[in-house]
Amino acid sequence: MRFCKKNIDLMDSVRTGALAAHAECQFQFHKRRWNCTLIDPMTHEVIPDKGQFMYQGCSDNVKFGIGVSKEFVDSAQRRVITTRDDNGTSLLAPSQLSADGMHMINLHNNQAGRQVLEKSLRRECKCHGMSGSCEMKTCWDSLPNFRHIGMAIKDKFDGAAEVKVVKDEGIEKPRIVMKNSQFKRHTNADLKSASGLQRLLNPPESGLLTLQRLLNP
């Protein structure tokens, strides 16, 4: 709420980005039984639109878009506090995924999504000169369309590293480790999938309808 009040001028872009992301997610997962929880779409939308050609070398302000996305999307995760008793002990059952661990995974995946966008930048150039010559060339970095980014994130989703949350005795902050230690450890660019994540399902009366379901590919 604080972010929204402070950045009223960006709210239309945030809304547009959220709608575009939901539509893209539905397209990418239209053959799967998953209800498309919100992905990180704001970066693409809040980047200023400078037109089809940027003659003076004005590139899409990716850093600005990423900064806004990080502040808006990550803020909710950073406020997560695990419920504890008077002694500071977590009240969650050991078999449950802790709120602390889940928000750590979400923050990691948010950043991995932003890296996809950064690596998707395309270098474009336009020549200037008489009769089509290229006496002077102006180049800039431009973003691909939303479908390209959606496909890249979908590929990462399919190859997400399965992890689990480990709560060491006497240490407040949980650790995220690979579920199977024989697998290669995930990188900062990989998406993480939480092992043992509780699914919230509303059984449909008919048809393939799944509601209130959390990610666990």
UniProtKB/TrEMBL annotation:
Record GO cellular component, one term:
extracellular space
Signal peptide interval: none
Q: Kindly list the places in or outside the cell where this protein is found, as annotated in its UniProt entry.
A: Secreted, Extracellular space, Extracellular matrix
Q: Which Pfam families match?
A: wnt (PF00110)
Q: Which PANTHER family match?
A: PROTEIN WNT-4 (PTHR12027:SF101), WNT RELATED (PTHR12027)
Q: Which GO terms describe its molecular function?
A: cytokine activity; frizzled binding
What's the family? Belongs to the Wnt family.
Q: Name one GO biological process term.
A: cell fate commitment
* UniProt source species: Caenorhabditis latens
Sorted keywords for this record are: Developmental protein, Disulfide bond, Extracellular matrix, Glycoprotein, Lipoprotein, Secreted, Wnt signaling pathway
What protein name is recorded for this chain?
Protein Wnt
Concerning InterPro entries, the annotation shows:
Wnt, Wnt_CS
